[in-house]
Amino acid sequence: MTVLDLHSHVVPAGTPFAARRRGGDSRWARLEPGDQHGDVIVSGRLFRRVRRVAWDLGERREQLTAAGVSGQLLSAMPELFALWAEASEALDYARAFNDWLGAEVAEHAGYFSGLGLVPVQDPEVAAKVLSEVAALGLVGVEIPAGSLEHPRWTDFFAEAERLRLLVFVHAVGGEDVRSFGDPGLANGVLFPNSIGRAVGGLIANGVLARFPRLQLLVSHGGGSLLTMLPRMEHFRGRSETARELLPESVSDYARRLWFDPLLFDPVLLQALAAVVGGDRVVMGTDYPFMDRSIAFLDQVPDSLAAAIRLDNGRRLLAALRSSV
Question: Taking a C-beta distance cutoff of 8 angstroms, is the pair 5, 72 a contact?
Answer without folding.
Answer: yes
